[in-house]
From TrEMBL:
SUPFAM superfamilies in the record: CoA-dependent acyltransferases
GO annotation terms (biological process): lipid biosynthetic process
Pfam hit, one: Condensation
Protein name: Condensation domain-containing protein
Start and end residues of each Condensation domain: 61-332
InterPro entries: CAT-like_dom_sf (IPR023213), Condensation_dom (IPR001242)
Gene Ontology MF annotations: catalytic activity
Domain of life, source organism: Bacteria
Length: 431
């Protein structure tokens, strides 16, 4: 049995006020409603020797004071729409959990993280951050932190981690969520909506016809872990003078075209948006999805790379917009077009969140590494997720292609064919 005490940590910071959710927050809120989850993200990690409870409390105080998103609660209008309320001061709880002497503190910390993530969150009355320190035999051993996704996205978490290590004394320079709806941003939103409308009106109608192999549970996530891709993708990108993400996206479009026969392919890309003024160091969710039309059927991979680069660049340019206005646009186009285009595919390159990556040996043979590729089903569930969404992850010496798909549209054999086809295309291009 673990003992526990709770310390009230006071905080005070600038930027208090009330307003609409930022566009990135609106996107996250939509995902939260669809998934029926508060989308907690966090960690349980060992602390360096000499760490004290007071030191961790000071970290918590510093973060909540510096970042308005960490001291934000929601207020709901009569129609259910949320507004953000940033508080100037308050107190946030720090749990101090004492693990039994015979217990493994890592196991205890993981249990605390699970409890934090599985406990419902009240957006109107609770702070969006939960933190604990796990002591073992009286000495801090682990730190646990869980935040609501409305606070931060993956790249914002890296910004927070860096600033926490440096503790800059000056005020933050990033636009805060209450400040992000500028006149320039509104103009960019209007241009983005015109881009979306053009693609939705001119792309051929949805042609996913069914997989012929529907399964129960319906939704599968398949992982293909490829050391060969780790070795090959950089070579292809360097030769083409493109980002490796473009290489992976082109291979995805080509594989989908071969397996399903669908071309062009409407695909949503997750875009960090941190290249935009004021957002590089934002500790708040600023990622949104871009829409691009990938037409790579019948061309060689070199041409596919060029077409993908052009299409994705147009998407990135138009990836900052008002989600509410986009929702209204999509509904209007669907009413006015009898055979609407439907966006079923998505692509999210999440490799930037993994920092421990082995360097690539230029003499290594990607083709020889194919023998070490593994494929497994990570999860099967009836709870819906996006019909066909590829996440690109990274291990120290491998790239992981994680394909989430509705087996009623893309059966297990087709999922495997898409992932295998991506790997083969890139390795062939590199060797």
């Amino acid at each position: 049995m673990c003992g526990m005490t709770v310390i009230a940590v006071p905080f005070a910071g600038e930027g208090a006020g009330e307003g609409e959710l930022s566009w990135g927050q609106q996107d996250i809120w939509g995902s939260m409603r669809r998934d029926r989850s508060w989308l907690p993200i966090g960690f349980a990690r060992p602390v360096p020797p000499g760490t004290t409870v007071e030191g961790i409390a000071d970290e918590l105080r510093w973060c909540v004071s510096r970042y308005p998103s960490m001291r934000t609660r929601l207020r709901f209008a009569a129609d259910g729409r949320p507004r953000q309320v940033v508080h100037a001061s308050g107190e946030v709880a720090l749990e101090v959990v004492d693990a039994p002497p015979e217990a493994d503190p890592a196991v205890v910390a993981k249990g605390v993280q699970d409890r934090f993530q599985e406990t419902d969150h009240d957006h109107a009355t609770q702070w969006p951050v939960r933190m604990a320190v796990v002591r073992h035999r009286g000495v801090p051993a682990y730190q646990v932190m869980v935040v609501c996704h409305l606070v931060v996205d993956g790249l914002g978490a890296l910004v927070m981690q860096d600033e926490l290590a440096r503790r800059p004394s000056g005020p933050g320079t990033a636009l805060q969520p209450l400040e992000q709806r500028t006149p320039a941003a509104v103009r960019r939103s209007e241009a983005a909506l015109r881009h979306w409308e053009h693609l939705l009106r001119t792309t051929p109608a949805d042609r996913f016809t069914g997989s012929g192999d529907p399964r129960v549970p319906r939704y599968w996530e398949v992982h293909r872990t490829s050391p060969a891709l780790h070795l090959a993708v950089g070579t292809v990108a360097a030769r083409a003078r493109l980002e490796s993400s473009t290489v992976l996206l082109a291979a995805f479009a080509a594989a989908m075209s071969r397996v399903t026969g669908i071309a062009p392919l409407l695909t949503q890309l997750v875009v960090g948006n941190r290249f935009r003024p004021g957002l590089a160091t934002a500790v708040s969710p600023v990622s949104q999805t871009a829409l691009c039309r990938l037409d790579v059927a019948g061309c060689d991979f070199g041409e596919a790379l060029t077409r993908t680069w052009r299409a994705s660049l147009a998407g990135y340019k138009h990836s900052y917009y008002d989600p509410s206005a986009l929702g209204s646009l999509v509904e209007r186009v669907a009413r006015e077009r009898p055979d609407p285009a439907v966006v079923r595919c998505g692509f999210n390159d999440r490799r930037g969140l993994t920092l421990d990556v082995a360097p690539v040996d230029p003499a290594a043979d990607p083709r020889a590494a194919l023998a070490r590729t593994t494929t497994h089903v990570e999860r099967r569930q009836d709870k819906p997720f996006d019909p066909c969404y590829l996440h690109v992850l990274r291990q120290r010496e491998a790239i992981v292609l994680a394909l989430c798909a509705d087996t009623h549209l893309l059966g297990p054999a087709d999922q495997d064919a898409v992932l295998r086809g991506m790997e083969e295309t890139i390795v062939d291009a590199a060797t």
